[in-house]
Design brief:
single chain; alpha/beta; six-stranded mixed β-sheet; about 20% helix
């Protein structure tokens, strides 16, 4: 989702909701602790220099139940960020606290997990903002020797004519 799309959605909402990929909602007492522009300047594994820019929202929920973020407040923060940080209409990436299983605790049969910052894409379903899963990928598959996925073909689709008929083309 681009920043302009998020701003349009915020103008129509009375409350803000963020839904995680598993269907759960981020607790409604969350804060947007950062709105920024992240610039990534890197060389991929094929030796190609690349630049990527995204708008970043960082969500955080704490035990502050008295201060809920309203759409117009987030819209004001976004507009100030656009002005001060010269943010363009870029794709939005969301950071939010995520839990991962600890392989050591898994061996011990305990129910512990580690927390880290998760990165998500953003979409909107007309009611809630949806945190979408992001995947890593090789940007230079042709340079790395990564084979492209082969298309599957049924043998029956290769030739409409029977192969061994007198007027067939196989003999």
């Amino acid at each position: 989702m681009k920043l302009s799309q998020a701003k349009s959605a915020l103008k129509e909402l009375k409350t803000i909701g963020f839904q995680l990929p598993d269907g759960n909602l981020v607790p409604n007492h969350f804060h947007v602790t950062e709105v920024g522009k992240i610039t990534k300047h890197f060389i991929d594994c094929g030796g190609i220099v690349r630049n990527e820019e995204v708008v970043n929202f960082q969500l955080w929920d704490a035990n502050d139940y008295d201060h809920r973020l309203h759409p117009e407040k987030l819209l004001n923060i976004i507009q100030l960020s656009e002005k001060v940080l010269k943010i363009e209409d870029l794709e939005i990436e969301v950071e939010y606290q995520a839990e991962i299983e600890d392989s050591q605790t898994q061996k011990n049969q305990t129910n512990n997990s580690l927390q880290t910052i998760g990165k998500f894409g953003l979409d909107f379903d007309g009611k809630n903002f949806l945190l979408t899963s992001k995947q890593t990928d090789c940007l230079a598959k042709d340079q790395c020797g990564i084979p492209t996925e082969k298309s599957k073909v049924k043998l029956s689709d290769l030739n409409d004519e029977p192969c061994c008929s007198p007027d067939g083309n196989c003999c």
